[in-house]
Amino acid sequence: MKGTRDRLWVRWRPTLLVLCQAGPCRVKLLSLFCIVLVAILVISRAASIMGWRHHLDSPQLPSRHQYTVLINTWRRNDLLKKSVAHYTQCNGVNAIRVVWSEPEPPSNSLHLELVQSVEASNLHNNNRHNHKISFQFDTHETDDLNNRFKPLNGLHTDAIFSIDDDVVVPCALLEFSFGIWLSAPDSMVGFVPRMHWVQSMKHAVEQEKYTYGGWWSVWWMGSYSMILSKAAFIHHKYFELYTQQMPASIHQYVREARNCEDIAMSFLVANATSAPPLWVKGRLFEIGSTGISSLQGHSEHRTQCVNHFVSVYGYMPLVASHVKVVDAQHQWLW
Length: 334
Ligand SMILES: *[C@@H]1O[C@H](CO)[C@@H](O)[C@H](O)[C@H]1NC(C)=O
Fold this sequence. Notes:
Blueprint: H1 2-21, H2 25-44, H3 46-49, E1 67-72, H4 77-87, E2 93-101, H5 108-124, H6 126-129, E3 134-140, E4 159-164, E5 167-168, H7 171-183, E6 189-190, E7 193-198, E8 210-213, H8 215-221, E9 226-227, E10 231-235, H9 237-245, H10 248-257, H11 261-273, E11 278-280, E12 285-286, H12 298-313, E13 324-325
Parallel strand pairs: 1-2, 1-4, 2-3, 6-11, 11-13
Antiparallel strand pairs: 4-10, 5-12, 6-10, 7-8, 7-9
Helix pairs in contact: 4-5, 10-12
The site of 2-acetamido-2-deoxy-beta-D-glucopyranose has 5 residues, from helix 11.
């Protein structure tokens, strides 16, 4: 072995010596460095040199390759204006609808302002979208949380992106996650995961009890079984199931507790699919002050909801998952 290595050295030594003897060695090393740099640049541009282009940004999108943005608002007109203005900028948005659950309908001036903002952006984005985004309020006279999942009339898409007025999802992330939903249109696809944890049982005969797991427990354990509808893609067929087929006792529970409509939707989808939802990695931006989830005792109410829904269903339909979907373009190695 040693002999081989020596022979190799003898063969390479003259080359190395020539490299460093013909002129200053630093110049040689510098040119070597330049060659490596150029090689790296060439490799990184290989996609365009090889003609590996894709057509993700095709401007002509049929409606089934578009989605409806459904904004939930609670009398926070400044947040609503910001949200609407933001989503008019995103590709793939077919329509923006706002769930308005108040005894008073939205004021004419608010309505006019929002319509004008959407129209202005339609004009501005004419080349990019090749279609016009429509805007509409869906008004309900009660503040029932079930209103959020009332089937929408005059819809042109199957995909609904359900979003609270105080959360903003960047357009690129929205388009990426819509692509994931297209691959799994029966699943809820979104950004806010939650988990149901099994409580340790005191007596074997008791029905299993569950604890609602917030963000920290999901982060710590890497498990989730729900994606909250505050930022999620949901197939519109589940709105019909929610309103027309889901047990009335769950509607009543949600109405009276003024909470947990999102958990009810997670149960419904899990019961229909026997599959977990999909969590997409991405950063959301919170605008405005903190909402209901910062209220005291929120987590206990959510735990009660989970256990109540389990008793209605007669079993626990939620399925845990450890899958987190990431954008491969932003992953450096594999
Ligand atoms: C769960 O799904 C089954 C099968 O789709 C359905 O028959 C049943 O009514 C659902 N349960 C509830 C409580 O909605």
